[in-house]
Amino acid sequence: MASPEHPGSPGWTGPTAKCTAGTRQEASATGRDLPCPGPEGHLDAPGSPSPNSSMTTGELQEYWRKEKRCWRRVKLLFEVASARIEERKVSKFVMYQIVVIQTGSFDSNKAVLERRYSDFEMLQKNLLKTFREEIEDIAFPKKHLVGNFTEEMISERKLAFKEYLTLLYAIRCVRRSREFIDFLTRPELREAFGCLRGGQYGRALDILVRVVPLQEKLTAHCPVMMVPALCAMLVCHRDLERPAEAFAAGERALQCLQAREGHRYYAPLLDAMICLAYALGKDFVSLQEKLQESQLRQPSPWGFTLKELTVREYLY
Fold it and tell me: How many CB atoms lie under 10 A from the CB of residue 261?
């Protein structure tokens, strides 16, 4: 029987109506719902919920899979594979290509990114503000007024930057810090979200597909940090009329948010997933129930749609 509670019924106003009440507030990637920094200023909160009786069998299985992954810490290797001299109208600099791979198994998602000396220098300055004692014995390649473009100097810096990143990664509080993670992922994420804001969904996805696997390896201790990027993938796939791929990205984002019903993305994400599930002929009723239960327990003050949230990320 038709009911206002179900899509397709005459009285159904759509899932958006259930979670758009309240005032609109600005949200950012560093919003209040990220884990609070620990005493050393790094993100060190557990990312997985505790098992409880309300979990389904599938959710419990996923929980224990995540727990096992946490027990085996992801180890990354850094290689400065190559370097090239780039000349622009008013500047000339060396761009270093960094390759990041996971050890212990075949890594089909190795990350390749480029950074210049000034990027490394900014990382060093930012880390010194919080981790001066922890990194005081790690040498940083000095800046030279001349000779920066000689083959000898470039080769020397390639080795130095490889050792620098390896030593930083070996320090637990540093590798989990916002500064270190941002150095390796933020430029690409900013570009991807800029493409999303400009309606270049295909280009945004090309970048996200490359950077999200690296972000996942770097944030295993705090999966909620991946939510904006995964939701951006959902939005891009959805607007490119790829509902199955959009739904898959949304499922990953929901897994990251299992214990965070108050997170600013939770209600808008569920709202988007309900529409996708209905379009794909999947179970949307359970998603509706989760959204309704969440709103009863903790009414959301935000009225943004998922797309409105994602376009506000990585503006600077």
Answer: 17
pLDDT class of 150 with cuts at 50, 70, 90 = very high
Whether residue 38 has pLDDT greater than 60: no
Output phi, psi for 50, to 5 deg.
-80, 145
Tokens 């759509």, residue located: 14
Question: What is the rounded distance in angstroms from the CA atom of residue 98 to the CA atom of residue 73?
Answer: 21
pTM: 0.77
> What's the distance, Cα to Cα, between the start and end of the chain in Å?
50
Contact 48, 67 (CB under 8 A): yes
User: What is the SS3 assignment for 223?
Assistant: helix
Domains located in the chain, CATH noted? 17-44+180-310 (1.25.40.10), 76-175 (3.30.1520.10)
What own/partner pairs with CB < 8 Å and gap ≥ 24 does 41-45 have? 41/130, 41/131, 41/173, 41/177, 42/130, 42/173, 42/174, 42/176, 42/177, 42/178, 43/176, 43/177, 43/178, 43/219, 43/221, 43/222, 43/225, 44/173, 44/176, 44/221, 44/222, 45/221, 45/222
Give the C-alpha separation, 274 to 313, whole Å: 23
Three-state DSSP class for 312?
coil
Q: Give the neighbor-by-neighbor strand order of the sheet with 76-87.
A: 76-87, 92-102, 111-116
Ramachandran assignment for 120, one of left (phi > 0), alpha (psi -120 to 50 degrees), beta (any other): alpha
